[in-house]
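Researcher: I'd like a structural prediction for the single chain below. Treat it as a standalone chain; there are no partners to consider.
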Amino acid sequence: MGSKILSYLQELKMNYVAVILSALLVYQTQGFAQTDEELKADLRNEVRTFGQDADGDFGSSLTLVLLGEKAYPVLVEALSDPDPRVKANAASMLGLMGGEGNVPTYVLEALQKAQEDEDPQVRTSASQTLSQIRQNK
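Model: Treating it as a single chain, here is the predicted structure.
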């Protein structure tokens, strides 16, 4: 039974990746490509609503894929937002970016600082993201 569940989850993950890559291809081939600045502006908006979208945060995931490492400064800046929900969302979104051992030092430092935030959700999100990054090294 456990292997069937694992297989199903792996298939879902692969389907999700395929959807993101397909959307990226459509963006590029159909002339919907945005400039980096437009994508960063989108990301600033998406970090405020992350986890609340009916589309399962597909837009946020796509923006992260399109921006790649250029998303780091936007998300690190959001870790200093006065709204704890925005800070927690930014930490969670940093976790979505993967982190195969090449996460910039300033990002790690910002997440470590967020672990000391007064809001428990911010601390939890930052801790979970740092744990993910360490596991991916």
